[in-house]
Amino acid sequence: MSSPATIKELMAVVLARELEDGDHLQVGVALPVPEVAVRLAHIMHGPNMQLIFLGARMNVHHLESIPLPDFGWDSRSVRWAESYSDRGHRFDQVKDWHKRVFFVGGLQVDKFGNINLIGVGNDPKKLKFRGPASVGTPTLTTHVGRYYIVLNNHSSRVLVPKCDYVSAVGWHKGGSDSRKELGIPGGGPKLCVTPLCVMDFTDVEKRMRLVSLHPGVTLGEVKANTGFELVIPDIVPTTAMPTHDELTILRSRIDLNGLLRSG
Amino acid sequence: MSNQVRKSVILREEEAGQWVQSGMTIAIGEPAPMGLLRWVVRNKVTDLTVIGSGLALDYLVAAGCVRKVITYYAGSPDIAVMPAFRSEVENGTLEVWECEEGILTSGLEAAGKGLPFMPWRGGVGTSLPDINTDLKVMCDPIGGEVLIAVPSINIDITLLHASISDSYGNVQHCRGTGWLDLFLYRAAERVIVQVEKIVSNEEIRSKPWETTISNADGVVLLPYGAHPFYSRGYYVQDQEHILNYLDAIKVAYTKSNRNEKDDYFEKYCNRFHSHAEYLDALGAGHLISLSEY
């Protein structure tokens, strides 16, 4: 078929393959890669998935096409929903959020998957760079069964030894018991997907570890652009490219305007 | 006895605008009640503490009305961080009560329930209690768990947009309220709701289960009042206008060309003496083009 997959399309396919039928998939605003990923998984292997955007909860597996909205805040993006805002309060049933899967970005991410959306700089009253604030990520990452960190760029300014501020706790100061010690029930971050590679967290220390390099990316490139020491396994495979089917469905039934093909 | 009548709460738009005074704490629902906010800007109200998010919050910041924001999110799908918010915080001229959605709703619930605080788990282990020292890390007296005590967030006036109301402040939203609207309503001393249409009390009483807000303190008739945002059942957001606003504000803050900002507020707010004049300037054809579906 046409042009090969772009990096963003590859990232969406990596995430889509991670998702299981029956997952409740919550995507926040301004995260086009996971928005495509959940739609792709829903079409390809998730008839019982629930997609949650802006408080609207939908299952649209029966539809031929689940296009991205033209405009992020289009109120009509909720029009196929089965319910809206979970009967009034989004946070009244966090006890059931072990079924829920979440996606989050970050201004900074450290080796234990802690995330900063607040800002960069020493003085919180006068930040050098003011971020968008925490949205609902502290509560979501506290309670969801698992979540994925998705970054638009992979650089040592983003993947840092220590976040200036932590807005969402990953594996805190490290260790598989670290969340339990804080009294945080959710399953924590599972993967960190960037334009260069896929990473997960080691079993005991919960340090970020390289899983696969995207086609054409070298180990040296990843190391040079990561601000902390990554765990590097003996064998690092290349991230599997999208199949013909995955790419066709992604382009013809979801990303109709080519959002993931540009930039 | 026979001349006793039930009191109407319908306000003229300029009257409603007068309710918001400098120094108050106000809250903005979703979609944002822009018709009322344009009065806040026009009246040159300052030093507000504003509970809100995204573009509408940034609009008031850019207009110079705000001293402090209580927000969980100042971004949008179009721009990572709102330009006026970002610039004012980086300059140290805007105070932020740092929070997140669960912490905010907890503080609003505490206010509505007349409690000093509500406990919440989201935020435990984060920097939020370090940055916002109003948030207290506490030990749960029942099971000894570590939680965050969120103090009640009290609001002087909540400003909302809805579909219809009768003259007594019985408000019905079309297709649901904005997700925070009812929290903001319950936490506030007073609430003003701008509506697309004022209907008879009989119409409200024909479907009382659809009443979302009872006893609004003030109701204002402002059709198309959420423009440039959407109003479910009536019109969709005006994407072009929103992007124009963002461009103007970005230029004003990143290139220090304040004229761009002043021009925007002059062109789309300050020069009008009424909401009708604002709609006239947009034009009937343009408004019709925004009809839903």
Main-sheet strand order of chain A equals: 4-3-2-1-5-10-11-12-13
**What multimeric state do the chains show?**
heterodimer
The number of helical runs of chain B is 12
Largest sheet of chain A: 9 strands, mixed
User: How much is the radius of gyration of chain A in Å?
Assistant: 18 Å
* Strand count of chain A: 13
- Write down the CATH topology of the largest domain in chain B: Glutaconate Coenzyme A-transferase
Descriptive report:
The complex is a heterodimer of chains A (263) and B (293). Chain A is α/β, with parallel strands linked by helices. Chain A is built from six helices and 13 strands. Chain A folds into two domains: 1-89 and 243-263, Glutaconate Coenzyme A-transferase (3-Layer(aba) Sandwich), CATH 3.40.1080.10; 102-232, Glutaconate Coenzyme A-transferase, CATH 3.40.1080.10. In chain A, the strands form three sheets. Chain A has a nine-stranded mixed sheet, with helices on both faces. The longest helix of chain A is centred in the N-terminal third of the chain and has 14 residues, at 32-45. Chain A is globular and about 45 Å long. The model of chain A has no long low-confidence stretch (mean pLDDT 93). In chain B, helix 5 packs parallel to helix 7 and helix 9 runs antiparallel to helix 10 (258-270). In chain B, strands 1, 2, 3, 4, 8, 9, 10, 11 and 12 form a nine-stranded mixed sheet that branches. Chain B has 293 residues and is an alpha/beta fold. Helices cover 36% and strands 22% of the residues of chain B. Chain B has twelve helices and twelve strands. Chain B has helices spanning 13-19, 34-42, 54-62, 83-90, 101-113, 128-131, 181-187, 201-205, 239-254, 258-270, 275-282, 284-289; strands at 25-28, 48-51, 66-71, 95-98, 117-120, 136-139, 146-151, 155-165, 171-172, 188-198, 211-213, 218-221. Chains A and B meet through strand 9 and helix 3 of A and helix 4, strand 4, helix 5 and helix 6 of B.
